[in-house]
Write a structure and sequence with these properties.
By secondary structure, this protein is an all-alpha fold. It has one domain. The chain is built from five helices and no strands. This is Apovitellenin-1.
Amino acid sequence: MLQSRALVIALILLLSTTLPEVHSKSIFERDRRDWLVIPDAIAAYIYETVNKMSPRVGQFLVDAAQTPAVVVTRNFLIRETTKLSILAEQLMEKIKNLWYTRVLGY
């Protein structure tokens, strides 16, 4: 029962990742627009832990994370969160400019 719960949790976390991309990203990289970096890092940690205990289950998780449906969904989420991040950055620039011009009078 405990093993199946661990497998389900690991699968849920790995659904948003592919392994080569996890190791190429830094959680603390500055000016990062990809909001999925932290879940990717968590998924990589879980994969490494599961893979140490059972390489067969680890391989199953890798195969599940690289199915076309998961990859397409992940790419869609990355694309949409990047758009939201750009809009948030533009909004912050407008607020900053408004603050400097209207409030502070620069």
